[in-house]
Amino acid sequence: MGTATLRVVSLIATVFVLMAFVVENGSGSRILAIFPSPANSHQIVFRAIVKGLLERGHHVTMMGTDPIETDNPNITQIDWSFAHKIIVENIDVAKLRQENCKTLTISKQLLHVTEMFVRAEMNHPDVQQLIRNAGDEQFDVLIVEYFQMTPFFAFAELFNVPMIGVTSIDSISQAHEVVGNVVNPVIHPEISHKFSVNLNFFQRIDALLTKIFIDHILFPGEFAKYDEIIEQNFGSNMSKSYELMNRVDFLMTNVEPAMGFIRPIVPQAIQLGFLHIEPPKPLPTDLQQYLDRSRHGVIYFSLGTLIRSSSVNAKNTKIFLDAFKSLKYDQDLLAHSNVKLFVTQGGQQSMEEAVDRHVPMVVIPFNFDQFGNGDKVVERGIGKSIWMERLTTDGLRQAILEVIENKKYKRNIERLGKLIRDQPMRPVDKAVWWTEYVIRHQGASHYRYKPAQMPAWQYHYYDVVAFLLAVTALLIAALGYAVRRFYRFLAGHRWFSTQVKQKAL
Ligand SMILES: *[C@@H]1O[C@H](CO)[C@@H](O)[C@H](O)[C@H]1NC(C)=O
Ligand SMILES: *[C@@H]1O[C@H](CO)[C@@H](O)[C@H](O)[C@H]1NC(C)=O
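Structure tokens predicted for Glucosyl/glucuronosyl transferase:
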């Protein structure tokens, strides 16, 4: 071969290698991202994923309630920040909870407000324009917050792209059920329950009835409303809620198993957790000095982003103030080697921050997953949990002193923090890698767990068990009948009856 030929061959080889690299990279993909929940603790997680995707050179069209401040030209944002106002004006969950409002009542109100903001978000002119001009747009994948807000899933069908469901906390049972993750309600009760582990008999009944109620009454009602929204916005040919729920190609839940979120999951789903955690940034000087100077250390007290301080009632405010006043520790907000303890409502993102910074916790759960999170903190030995409704000044004071003074909590949380950092890649890189994987293979149907679509009675082989029980019952009945007949036959026999009579004498 001449040098010229060699050069051509090597040039072609280079081109192929380059092409392979580009394809392999999956970079420069067009991603549609939809995050409808107007809650900072949700959006902070989703923004981390979007930033990760932008860093890889992808183009992202994002609908969200908390737009990203960036001069990156590769992101187009539809600003839904007005949706926060819909929540603030229509519901105050913390207040309802302190008024001892029932979980079901709160859930129903929350679902009502959800429907309100879903309608408002769909009506945004930019969203309407995207739907009208769908023919001119092209995407490679849809990433969407995967709860029950099905109208947004319709964009996957509209653009004919794979759909990745993500959640900022653990997902609802229905989401797990769709892909085939284990959803056994007495082992993994819905996160709205106050109990999360070692359910007693009555809690198990409660958990099962709740699941039946959600699956057969609550959600069908919600889905009927969402079907109407889907039809209004996408026309009558668009699939309806149940089909759209089932359309999910890949599920990413933001829970870290080492924190105690352990459940058998299928290959079509992954658990992440700690998505929003970034390395600590330097503190503002005044705060840094304040923390450096603190002699006894600092307690960081925060009830998260969803609970407004105005919604903590007078009784509970007094408990907090009295408990903190009686301690020698200063109180303030932040992470620093002088921070001894984190008093938190037990939101998952707060918990993750504490674990990452090795600060043990006293959890005061209010709602939703916070009770379960509190249980996990206790179970992992990284703090204590006191339900808001059982809070007393003395109880809070003792819990604080115990967690600060007993060094086992600090040791446990250091160990857990290190365990969680020990992974092949950062959670956000994992989310990005799997997104590119789904793009490269146009879904992940090769991972689909088909039995997930079987009817429940078949999947749990209720029919087989019922049949075998029926056969067994029949056999026993038949045997009983035969024995009775045989006895009567013998009794009717003269010889036998005389024998019996003689014995009886
Ligand atoms: C925008 O995307 C292109 C590829 O689509 C990439 O080359 C470029 O670096 C990206 N810009 C930024 C600021 O990330
Ligand atoms: C629905 O689909 C049918 C068949 O593909 C088509 O004829 C009809 O025009 C569609 N209707 C709408 C409202 O898009």
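Residues 46 and 168 are 7 Å apart (CA to CA).
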